[in-house]
Specification:
By secondary structure, this protein is α/β, with parallel strands linked by helices. The chain has one domain: TIM Barrel, CATH 3.20.20. Helices cover about 40% and strands about 15% of the residues. It contains twelve helices and eight strands. An eight-stranded parallel β-barrel has the order 1-2-3-4-5-6-7-8, surrounded by five helices. α11 links the parallel β7 and β8. α7 packs across α9. The longest helix is centred in the C-terminal third of the chain and has 19 residues. The termini are close together. It binds 2-phosphoglycolic acid. 2-phosphoglycolic acid (PGA) binds next to β8. The site of 2-phosphoglycolic acid has 13 residues, from β8.
Length: about 260
Amino acid sequence: MNRKYRRIIIAGNYKMNMLPGEIRAYAESMKTLVPRARWCETVICAPFVDLTAGLKYLKEARISVGAQNMSEYPRGAYTGEVSGEMLRDLGVKYVIIGHSERRQYFNETDLTVNEKVRAALDLGLHPIVCVGESEKQRELGLTEAHINYQVRAALSGVNEEQIRKVVIAYEPIWAIGTGNTATAEQAGEVNRYIRSIIRSIYGARLARATSILYGGSMNEKNAFELLAQPDIDGGLIGGASLVPEKFAKIIMAANQE
Ligand code: PGA
């Protein structure tokens, strides 16, 4: 982390694992567990139908609300889709774009990810853009080539003003939901590489100000070490965000110097 230059963000992504009726109790637990003084921005990314309850109750725990996806289209005949404007109208601030589960199960490509990122930015939302290599790609030594392509594709057409709103999350696919966290060094190295890509596109000043998170089996035990890496500016947390005690401890780990 380097809180002098960039926002530290601890974002929960509980995926399809909580009902609208369960959010209130979750928010109340978080409120009692997390101290008021906090040195990081805390976010919960919720499924669409949970957003209203999230916005209502999580505010009291001073937690911002994000969505887990949005449509690349502004409006129109797209049955079943949810637009960025709908999210903004509700008061949602963040939106995860290009999570590996969406790429894997819902046919999202680097090009649709780019369309979604630009649509989110046009509306003033903060996209949390996920990138990460598979186990096979890492084995074959293709991690950097893959990350380089994913980051450049996601940010194509994003201007210098807009990059300030973008959050990147490095999420190696082999670490998501598996308990196999990347070591702090492995994660720190890829995050540093991502910053070098941003630097080559937008220059040193904007690269230094971009928050780059790590996600993939981050938990209350390994968070402190991961966040101690200079280029890891927070976390995107799946499983551990479902348990208020664990998520609160990760938030506390972001309070280190
Ligand atoms: P995990 O998920 O923390 O359960 O590995 C992270 C994510 O998918 O964002």
